Amino acid sequence: MARRLNIETIGVKNTPDLNSSCDVVLRVKNRSPMQGNFRQLVVCEDISGISSKTDLLTIKDFSRIRNNLTKKIRPNLGLEISIADARRLDANALGRWLSQAKYVYRLCRSTRCQFIISSGAKSIFGMVSSRTFESILTMLNISPANYWAELSAWLDSKDTVRSYVC
Amino acid sequence: MLRRKNKRRYLAVMYDPNTSQTQVKGDIQGRFMELFGSIAKELAFLRAYHSIQNGILILSCDLEYLERILFTIAMMEQPMTVVMMSGTVRKLRERLIQSEISLN
């Protein structure tokens, strides 16, 4: 399905029966010493739980964490917002979500963090195609070409620190 | 006098097959109007076409409003996704059939 949507790399939760032909990045809470076949990103949903090992902070309730955000983040941390959260919002709240997403993007630029927009899909119907991502980025006044290039570079930078247990 | 038709784009939208096509089309139009207003909804000239594939809705819109339509579909409460896009409905149907064959 990801291939059909022109998505080359997908981030998924770690499951024992994971078998994919697509480039997969595992979203884990704690990095496993045994890396396996897939890259891993340590994901944190609570701003107070950010540690030096955290790769990605998922922003759920922006208004609650806005004041702490600038104090807690460090360069090269990914800040992720999810489209699945925006789907439930009415028009007014969606407008606010867009302005918050723009703020997070500007914050990422100034603090050398990586802005990440994800589908947050729980089923194939919730997946978002690359073209649709680009239209959302355009709505946020973000250049899609820059976004994909920066995201690829960020993912590659996370890959260089992989260590293998022999 | 120069008569020129506005360019259109045809989208294949994949949705949960338990929902009816009419309801999906109405929901997309409603959400579009909620987000961008009645005038944009009329100018986007949204039209739905029959699709032989179960769970696929073919939707067309004015090219100028394509970004907004894609944004609207991504922001639908009931998850759905645009799987294919084309400049003509015939080409889109052909590609849908081809992709169905390649998936089988």
Characterization of this structure:
The complex is a heterodimer of chains A (166) and B (104). Chain A contains five helices and six strands. A six-stranded parallel β-sheet of chain A has the order 1-2-3-4-5-6, with helices on both faces. The longest helix of chain A has 21 residues. Chain A is globular and about 40 Å long. The radius of gyration of chain B is 14 Å and the shape is globular. Chain B has four helices and four strands. Chain B has 104 residues and is of the alpha+beta class. In chain B, helix 1 crosses helix 2 and helix 1 packs across helix 3. At the A-B interface, helix 2 and helix 4 of A face helix 3 and strand 4 of B.
Number of domains of chain B: 1
Q: Report the count of strand segments of chain B.
A: 4
Which pair of chains forms the biggest interface, and how many residues does each contribute?
A-B, 26 and 23 residues
> Order of helices and strands of chain A, N to C?
EEEEHEHHEHH
In terms of DSSP E residues, the strand content of chain B is: 15-25%
CATH topology-level name of chain B: Alpha-Beta Plaits
The mean pLDDT of chain B is 90
Give the key terms.
heterodimer; A: 166 residues; 6-stranded parallel β-sheet; globular; B: 104 residues; alpha+beta
Write the layout of secondary structure elements.
The complex is a heterodimer of chains A (166) and B (104).
Chain A: E1 9-13, E2 23-28, E3 39-44, E4 56-58, H1 62-72, E5 78-82, H2 83-87, H3 91-111, E6 114-118, H4 130-139, H5 144-159
Parallel strand pairs in A: 1-2, 2-3, 3-4, 4-5, 5-6
Chain B: E1 8-14, H1 21-36, H2 38-44, E2 47-49, E3 56-62, H3 66-74, E4 81-86, H4 89-103
Quickly describe the structure:
The complex is a heterodimer of chains A (166) and B (104). Chain A has five helices and six strands.
